[in-house]
Amino acid sequence: MKHLFRGGSDPEQPTLLLLHGTGGNEEDLLPLAKMLSPESGMLSVRGDVLENGMPRFFRRLVAVGYSNGANIAATVVFSTAKNLMDHGFSFCITR
């Protein structure tokens, strides 16, 4: 996997994991990371799945359900996000 690592100037600061959006690359979020935490290290990776020639991290998955199937699909989506948040991940959901 193609990636960039830039060590930070303060080892007490966290290393930021940078994940670009569809069609982006490992350099896209470096300026934002520098603004958010100038002294942090940065690990930025390029998605290794191509969709219409654009890099991304995974193939799109759409959960479809009817009646109880919809309940199961929603539970899987929301419990996965909650489990990740319980382990220190945070999300910014955009439209």
UniProtKB/TrEMBL annotation:
This is Phospholipase/carboxylesterase. It comes from Kroppenstedtia guangzhouensis. SUPFAM superfamilies: alpha/beta-Hydrolases. InterPro entries: AB_hydrolase_fold.
